Amino acid sequence: MTSIKHHPKTETLAAYAAGALDEARAVVIATHLDLCDACRAAARDFEALGGVCLEAAEPAPMKEGALERFWLRAGGARAERAPASTRAANDFDLGLARPLSAYLKGGLDAVQWRRIGPGMEQCVLDAQGYRKGVLRLLKIAPGVRLPKHSHGGEELTLILRGAYEDEIGEFRRGDLADLDDEDTHSPCAIGEEPCVCLIAASAPLRFKGLAGKIVQPFIGL
């Protein structure tokens, strides 16, 4: 999708290809890959490189009975049938975004949003990560701006619908902001429809102003 202008960092894609990301971040990256041809190709290259490294690695001795135990575990796992359709079960067009559809059975229109502030709603998704509530949907009404903040660690934000702009640039559907504790911004939803984002964050936001710090415990960001 050539209209996508913002992508994950190279090291983030490499970590995804190596299986080194936690569930929450992996869901965000996998959903972006379903929308971005360039990043999907880059991830395949990293996977191929990893395969070459494995082939070149010196073999390590296995403990006695290790292979038998592996096959017992593999044989005991029930194979899941592939879905009848490869389209996500969402009301927005995400094509092959199966990772996200597992968390949004009824699509965005069925999400139970919780109001966390004027013009802002969120829905916490059940995924393993650095901490509880690490994966969430955030909906921002047009014209609403989040208070200026930095990050206590890593944050991945993928735009699913609508758009926002901040000090970094303009982010639209498919764009991904791969931020860390050195980034400071204040996103503002632009356009005629709410901006819906999928976010995985390793730590709570660090609001710069007094008002943001006061309301943070109540909004849970």
TrEMBL record:
It comes from the Bacteria. Residues 13-40 form the Putative zinc-finger domain. SUPFAM superfamilies: RmlC-like cupins (SSF51182). Residues 109-200 form the ChrR-like cupin domain. It comes from Amphiplicatus metriothermophilus. This is Anti-ECFsigma factor, ChrR. InterPro entries: Anti-sigma_ChrR, Anti_sigma_zinc_sf, ChrR-like_cupin_dom, RmlC-like_jellyroll, RmlC_Cupin_sf, Znf_put.
